[in-house]
C-alpha cells in the first residue's frame, strides 16, 4: 500500500520550477512524461503524467522518482538493485519495458509500459526523460490531448532516436532490421514507408513498401516492390539524389509529374499515384563505406506536409538504419564465406555398393557457420570403407582449421598403414601433439567390410567420443560402448583397443557428435536416452528422413554447439546382431 500523500510531500526536495521551454516540450509528447535530474529527482512533468498518476505536477517536483513511483507487481517497494528503470538511469543508457508498475497518489497500482533515455543540457548537466503509457489505463475515458502532428520536439526526437538505436542494433538479420525500421516510422512519422536497397552488383531493388491502416495495422504492398531501373548519375530528382548519397530532399505530388528524366522517375510517379502520398521525405541510407539505399517516408491520410525542419530526424533514422544494415550484410557475408568453407572442408560421401549412407552438419547457432565437428568416409586400398567422426575443441575458424588438419592426417595414416583402427588412432594422437595447433579432440575411427550372408562387419576404436548407436530394422537399439579410450591430445601414452560388431541386414548405424545429445542442466544419460528412443521410433523411415527427423527431435532447443551426424544402413531384412570387444 502506498504511504499517505502528506508524508511524501513533506520529504520533497526544493527544486527550481521547470523552464517554459521544457514544459512546452513535455506537453507535446502524447504520453505521460517527466524529467529527472542527475540525482533522480523529478524536475518537470506533463499534464498526462499528472492525470495518470493522480499527482499535481508541483507535488511531483523534487521527489526521488524511484522512491515515489516505482513498485513491484504486488505494490511492494522495489529495492534499487531490482528496478530496471533505476538501473538504466544509473547506467545512462536508453531502455524500455512492456510492463512495470507505478504507485498512484491514491495508493492504487498503475500497470505501465515505459521508455527512458538520457540527454545532456550544457548548463544543467545530465537529465533523463521517462515516457510512459498506462497498460490498463484507469483514466481511459478522460479526454487527452491529441498527439502533435507537426515536427517533433527535441525530447521526442531524442526518445525516438534512442529507441531506433536500441532496436536496430539488436539484430543481425537484414529482414528483421527492415521490419523494425518500418515499425519505428509508421505510423509515428508517416503513413507510408518505402525502402530501396542497392545490391552488391549496384542493382536497385524496392524492398519494402508498407502502409499503416486506420487501426494501426501495417500492410505490405508487394505489387509496388521489385527491381528498379538504374540510378542516373546527373539526375536532380529526390530519389536519384538520395541513392547517390547526395542529400535528403522533400517531395510532393508535383515533383514527379514533370516529364521523367530516367526510368527510376517513372517508378516514383507510379509510387506516388498508387499510394496517394501528397508529401514525402527521402533520405540516403548510408554505411561508413557506401550508400546502401534510400528511405522514403510519406503522408497520404495525415494532412500535414513534411517540412525541412523534419529532414534532420529522417536523416538520423536513415543513418542508424544504414549502420545496422551494413552490420547485418557483413555478418551474412561472413556466414556465407564460412558456409562455403565448411562445405569444402566436409567431404562428399563415397558410393558403397549395397550400402546407404547420409550425413548432416548443423553449425552452432551463435558461431560463424564453421566449427570443429566433422565426419568422414572414404574407400581404403584393400576395398574396405573407412568411417570417422570427431570433434576438435572450439568453434569458428580456428577449430575448423584444426579439424581439417586432424581429418587429413587420419586419412593419410588410414590409407598408407594397413593396421587396426586402434593403431591408426595412436599414430594420430602422437602426431597432433607435435605438428598441429589442436589442443584436444575426440574421434571414432572404424573400418567397414562386407561379410557373409548379407551382414557387414565394423571394426572401430573410440578416443573419448560419444558411443555409436546401432538400431535394428525392428527398432532394437544398442550403444557400442566397446573400444573406448582417452581423447586425443592428453599426452598420455596408452594402448588403445579395438572392437568389432556385425551389422545385420536392415540395420542402421548412427555416428554423431556431442552437440546432438548434450543440454545445459541435464546429464549425458538424458540425451543418450532421448537419442535411443527417437532412433527406435524412426527405424522404419527412409534413411534421409530418419536423419532429418532425428536431428529435429533430439537436438536440444537450447543447444549452443555444432552437430555432425553420419548414418548408414545395410540392405536386407534380418534382425540378428551381436557385438564383441577385444584389446589389441
Describe the structure.
The protein is α+β, with helices and mostly antiparallel strands and 584 residues long. It has 15 helices and 25 strands. It has helices at 5-10, 20-27, 47-53, 57-60, 65-69, 84-91, 154-168, 174-185, 238-243, 263-275, 311-345, 396-416, 421-435, 524-537, 543-554; strands spanning 32-36, 42-45, 70-71, 95-103, 109-121, 125-134, 192-198, 204-212, 218-220, 226-227, 249-252, 279-286, 291-299, 356-362, 371-379, 385-395, 441-450, 456-463, 469-471, 477-479, 484-485, 498-503, 508-512, 563-569, 579-582. The strands form 4 sheets. Strands 7, 8, 9, 10, 11, 12 and 13 form a 7-stranded antiparallel beta sheet that branches. A hairpin with a 5-residue loop joins strand 1 (32-36) and strand 2 (42-45). Helix 7 (154-168) packs antiparallel against helix 8, helix 12 crosses helix 13 and helix 14 (524-537) packs antiparallel against helix 15 (543-554). The chain is elongated and about 95 Å long. Residues 1-12, 137-149 and 574-584 have low confidence and may be disordered.
